Amino acid sequence: MNLLPKSSKEFGSVDYWEKFFQQRGKKSFEWYGTYLELCEVLHKYIKPREKVLVIGCGNSELSEQLYDVGYQDIVNIDISEVVIKQMKERNASRRPHMSFLKMDMTQMDFPDATFQVVLDKGTLDAVLTDEEEKTLQQVDRMLAEVGRVLQVGGRYLCISLAQAHILKKAVGHFSREGWMVRVHQVANSQDQVFDAEPRFSLPVFAFVMTKFRPVPGSALHIFELCTQEQGKPVRLESADRLAEAVRERQHYAWLCSQLRRKAGLGSVSLDLCSGDTGEPRYTLHVVDNPTVKPSRDSHFAIFIIPQGRETEWLFGMDEGRKQLAASAGFRRLVTVALHRGQQYDGMESIQAELSTRVMELAPAGMPPQQQVPFLSVGGDIGVRTVQHQDHSALSGDFVIEDVQGEDRWYFRRLIFLSNRNVVQSEARLLKDVSHRAQKKRKKDRKKQRPADTPEDFPPAPGQSIDKSYLCCEHHKAMIAGLALLRNPEQLLETPLTLLVVGLGGGSLPLFVHDHFPKSRVDAVEIDPSMLEVATRWFGFSQSDRMKVHIADGLDYITSLAGGEARPHYDVIMFDVDSKDPTLGMSCPPPAFVDQLFLQKVKSILSREGIFILNLVCRDLELKDSVLAGLKAAFPLLYVRRIEGEVNEILFCQLQPEQKLATPELLEMAQALERTLRKPGLGWDDTYVLSDMLKTVTIV
């Protein structure tokens, strides 16, 4: 039998409720939770000896159950004569002191200040079905009557789903009256039973509106939120912030209900925030793997990503997380990233903190009381040491942090907090520094200091950088592209001239400077803060062969192209990011691949030179347009896709006859590598130049 209204407007209809209770008969209807689900919040805000008015009582057992545990001064009213008759008959002998009256709550017969509590379980939701003028006027009369019959210090306790228009109306009305407004979450969707009755995926809230004595001229407004997992309420600065916090709770509950019902919802992620500060503490990604055969031990697992490694492809990209889930062998894997600026005391404390919350994300069909394993890399939460925090007028807030990677190596990273999951620049620390950091960490474990507290690294941080090691795959590919220059075995003795646009931590121009002793490098950087960062934290330094120009790369190249003594660089490299996150191309900014500007780039490149560009473009149509524009300016165009990343490295040359087949290209890369591996030159043995060019294709 369908007892839920076809349209929400029917909730406000007297005829609907008369028909509803005739069909329903004497069976109680508990839409918003049973007494057991609500008793904690009810007992918190109602004292046993207080006089309670229940408006829109219906045939709920709530009043009866309150009466049976000692709340005996209860008056119930409802607009339906049918239900009032039912309730009188049901309670006449067992609950003689509880009364049931047919009454319109917008026109109550009670004297002023009769009650200490007005209890409303879903009635405001039933009346406030829309925001039409007639409906709002009816609700205004209802709430005015609630205020009239309550004593000063009394509470309007309204159980509601807190839909946006309902929360807005209730909070707005009572805050204007000078009442204290508190919203208390009383039930999450996982506590509700879906089998017996139609129920809701939204969580249930209690509005607790406390009547204060009016103070003329007072502008004090009190807004508070109390959630299930927080014992004390949190004070919020405005009604808008309260509404936002409630929406966040509703979205989370809806998401949990969807995850319980079905798998394969696509990419699902959410933040869990600190209850004290509201700052994100954990970022969770839910990954379903339908290929895993169900068994008792393969349902669900949690994977804690070591600090600082959340940007790696395996943990930071959808495809990587899918591969991780497949290798772990669970139907559902939840990855958990730890945020900088938060203190973590170890794996056990994280497990204790997360155990209840992550169970809300468990898949359907998981056996009750199933133990859920917490996994990690080596059972460790990793090390993240924030060395420096600052603000740039151009790049915004940024941090310099040292993190522990694979094989106990430590890496220094530059992170722009506007895009905190992207490593802007990275360098490996020398092994002896890593060793000292580990010893320091063991000592600090005893003190339980925050993981983000700066450690005592060497006084001159730049001196600890391994300058022979390129961390970024796209930098490795860009260096490998130098094999496209003729006679690679002679490049160490050739006076190469290079223009590098985009300094970052300086590792790319620094590698060229150190490995090609006759080279001269002009680096262009628009943000003066980045030069300071590169110099202080990444071991970068200028010399007679390395000059940094603080300028907009567009202006700098335009000036060179228009000058009388126009230079002709052997190599031009673009590794410059866009500050506009709304674009489908984050590297380079679109103006750098504009057709007119490319002609200027072309004019300052030597005839046999190479223009190397780091392209990060998620918009396929835009990418095709960029490639077509580059091809128009540079007849010979190679593309090298970086595996597991969006980056593509483009190698552009002016002479089509310079075209090399893959075997020739690999042979030249091997010749260049043999030259660079000569004794006395530092070289990373894992870096094989020819491997960087194996997958190059010609556009």
TrEMBL record:
<keyword id="KW-0511">Multifunctional enzyme</keyword>
<dbReference type="Pfam" id="PF13649">
    <property type="entry name" value="Methyltransf_25"/>
</dbReference>
<dbReference type="GO" id="GO:0032259">
    <property type="term" value="P:methylation"/>
</dbReference>
<keyword id="KW-0489">Methyltransferase</keyword>
<feature type="domain" description="Methyltransferase">
    <location>
        <begin position="52"/>
        <end position="147"/>
    </location>
</feature>
<dbReference type="InterPro" id="IPR041698">
    <property type="entry name" value="Methyltransf_25"/>
</dbReference>
<protein>
    <recommendedName>
        <fullName>eEF1A lysine and N-terminal methyltransferase</fullName>
    </recommendedName>
</protein>
<feature type="compositionally biased region" description="Basic residues">
    <location>
        <begin position="436"/>
        <end position="448"/>
    </location>
</feature>
<dbReference type="GO" id="GO:0005739">
    <property type="term" value="C:mitochondrion"/>
</dbReference>
<comment type="similarity">
    <text>Belongs to the methyltransferase superfamily.</text>
</comment>
<comment type="function">
    <text>Dual methyltransferase that catalyzes methylation of elongation factor 1-alpha (EEF1A1 and EEF1A2) at two different positions, and is therefore involved in the regulation of mRNA translation. Via its C-terminus, methylates EEF1A1 and EEF1A2 at the N-terminal residue 'Gly-2'. Via its N-terminus dimethylates EEF1A1 and EEF1A2 at residue 'Lys-55'. Has no activity towards core histones H2A, H2B, H3 and H4.</text>
</comment>
<keyword id="KW-0808">Transferase</keyword>
<dbReference type="GO" id="GO:0016279">
    <property type="term" value="F:protein-lysine N-methyltransferase activity"/>
</dbReference>
<feature type="region of interest" description="Disordered">
    <location>
        <begin position="433"/>
        <end position="462"/>
    </location>
</feature>
<comment type="subunit">
    <text>Forms a tripartite complex containing GAB1, METTL13 and SPRY2. Within the complex interacts with GAB1 and SPRY2.</text>
</comment>
<dbReference type="Pfam" id="PF01564">
    <property type="entry name" value="Spermine_synth"/>
</dbReference>
<dbReference type="InterPro" id="IPR029063">
    <property type="entry name" value="SAM-dependent_MTases_sf"/>
</dbReference>
<dbReference type="GO" id="GO:0005829">
    <property type="term" value="C:cytosol"/>
</dbReference>
<dbReference type="InterPro" id="IPR051419">
    <property type="entry name" value="Lys/N-term_MeTrsfase_sf"/>
</dbReference>
<dbReference type="GO" id="GO:0005634">
    <property type="term" value="C:nucleus"/>
</dbReference>
